[in-house]
Amino acid sequence: MSRPPLRAVIADDQALVRTGFGMILAADGIEVAAEAADGIEAIAAVRRTRPDVVLMDIRMPRMDGIEATRRILTDGDRDGTRIIILTTYDLDHYVYAAITAGASGFLLKDVSPEQLVAAVRMVQSGDALLAPTITRRLIERFADRKEVKAADAHPDLSGLTPRELEVLRLLATGLSNAELAERLFLSPTTVKTHIGRILSKLTLRDRVQAVILAYETGLIAPGDTARPRSTEDELSGGTGPKKH
Asked: Most exposed of 5, 44, 171, 241 (fewest Cβ within 10 Å)?
């Protein structure tokens, strides 16, 4: 039996943008369940249609995308809904606000159709994404923090195995699954299993929240970053050689 099509809600105050995104998604078999012109309409659309993914603009009338994201993700019935923030503004405070509100991804509106579709499918499967420049800005945000908690201040970290702690540290530097596999001499499948267990043990929604936790607890020091990846790596998870 075939699985039901992935369903999305598009929230943007520009009708042409909604139409364009809708055509891109529909061409790849992704159903557009509803459209919204502001944050209030977005919340209502999500409650009505229960989509898998929401493409959420930031600057909208009546209620912006950050507040709409926060309200959608604090609704107990929306646990399975993932939100990707789409904006033309590459600004640090928007990045931080979107991520702390619970967004699973943050992309600029100049992404290609292929990258947009890949992003929707990625977050729906439980992964999370940030454009390469956004990842670096997020890390820099933590580098500016004056106070960092001790790693053992978060009780849940004690439940991680040494290997899981190692995976979390490397994950927080921005490495893709393929890069983690190469660094740790593991298969990408094993890496994905480790990440799934980390998220489950720490009660985290996705790897974006894992990155935030790693820095907030001091598990990794600001500045301990990996090489920047290409946008294709960000969206595909990388294509490095498998290690067993």
From this structure: 241
